[in-house]
Amino acid sequence: MRISGGRYDADILEKVLQEAYGTTPMFHTARPSGMKYAVTATTLSDATLCLISNYHIEGKQTSNLGYKHLPPTSDKGEILIWEAARCTTAAPTIFKPKRLRSYGTFQDGGLRNNNPVRPGLRLVSQIRKDDDCDIVLSIGNGFEQKPLSPVASNFRNLFLDGALTRLYRASMESLSLNGQNSWDDHWNGLDEETKKNHFRLNLPLEGKEPGIDDID
User: How far apart are CA 143 and CA 210, in angstroms?
Assistant: First the structure.
């Protein structure tokens, strides 16, 4: 792993993103039809969840939404598409964080909310003035099916059941990092009528989940 914080060369990733998106600002991708989108990122300084969007929101942003909205243009300048893509793909140990001029340094949004359905819905309510979504679709990348609480062997050791190991396992299954668990929690809080418009596409995997950079 590089001292800068990434296993792979981020300069190569940036070159690919720049070739794909050029110097097009986020704001210039807004469509006459009103199509709006946002990607998530997390601040490096205090792990604040940010939604980088291609649109502005009228009025003052509510302070208790659980995220910070970064509009495509401000007095700090414009955010380019490739820059937003670079921020949201800066997974720790994979690629180093990305600094945006005047905005700060960002990393993968999945660190704070790996399934941002709830922040997304709150953002929609800001745009559509509390109007409900017609359809909510969440797409996963597969999940490992696990027993509720496996029986621990008498031969398990400090490495498997020590405090740090247990803390790591718990954090990986938290609502922030586990996208499927986050969706299940969201789904269980919906009334039966609302559930008819909320969908999740995710397949159970055979065996353990692959690493984020596995290629087989």
Answer: 10
| Count of domains for the chain | 1
Tokens coding 23: 């110097």
Per-residue pLDDT of 191-209, as tens digits, reads 999 999 999 999 988 888 8
In angstroms, the Cα distances linking 113 to 40, 48, 67, 108, 128 are 8, 10, 10, 9, 23
Full residue range of the structural domain in which residue 135 is found: 10-147+155-205
CB-based contact 118:176 (threshold 8 Å): no
Structure tokens at 55: 């649109």
Kindly give the interhelix angle for 117-127 and 179-188, rounded to the nearest 10 degrees. Answer: 60
188 is a domain residue: yes
- Nearest to residue 107, comparing CAs of 154, 178, 39? 39
Residue 191 falls inside a structural domain: yes
| CATH number (domain holding residue 73) | 3.40.1090.10
